[in-house]
């Protein structure tokens, strides 16, 4: 009670709460004195020692009225929904109306919902974008000022959603910011079957004794960040919403790791766990499913976001891979889809 009036804890709605990042964000929020509504197509995981009041809700957000019900009364929304095909792929669906409906349409729907609801104060929205939205528009260390030239349908969808949120912020409907994500890797803190990324896929192969295959000679550099660090960034964005609103920010470590270096590290970590020699790493021809950004470097400068929030990634890549390898050796032979 404060001055005889009950103080209501802020409500944070996490959309896409059952995925890899959504699970980590929900866990991070669970340690804070807030209310959390975790919304996804599958039931989200609730930490057993949660301080927050957590409501789990399953919903198809593309169904009429579901999104409005999901965000009713929200002070803040963390939007992590993305259209992914396949249970074991790091590839996002790259075309089709269904992909655009989820990746862009849900954001536009969210803006329309808040425009109709007219809450007393514009709610905070933190949206998950991708560093790859820049396409071939930048080189070297990216800081977010580069001209975007998205090369895939997924990145075009994400950019369109980001721009819709910026326009809605300028119009006073929401206070939105986009965090453009680097390549995320799980350390197995949560169910390792949630991690469909390239590092996890290659680590599974290496643990099984299968060779690792490189495209384009493995020269492209990626910024690899632990998903737990990314979750902390989303919470930091909620805490500094007004200073961040109206633009995008890059998450990253500022350090690029070539795919060849990553695969070498993965082979070494797997060998430590299996007691066998490291698996072979071989260059192969470019497969039919390759996209232009597979050969482009994406390394984000964390300094601008750090200057506002104090955030920086804490977990070293080797430690992430070592922990993930340990988790994968405990994983069932056929993880649930």
Automatic annotation (TrEMBL):
InterPro entries, alphabetized: Epimerase_deHydtase, NAD(P)-bd_dom_sf, NAD(P)-dependent_oxidoreduct
Pfam families: Epimerase
GO cellular component term, pick one: cytoplasm
Gene3D superfamilies reported in the protein's UniProt record: NAD(P)-binding Rossmann-like Domain
GO MF assignments: aldehyde dehydrogenase (NAD+) activity
Superkingdom of the source species: Bacteria
NAD-dependent epimerase/dehydratase domain boundaries: 12-252
Protein name: Oxidoreductase
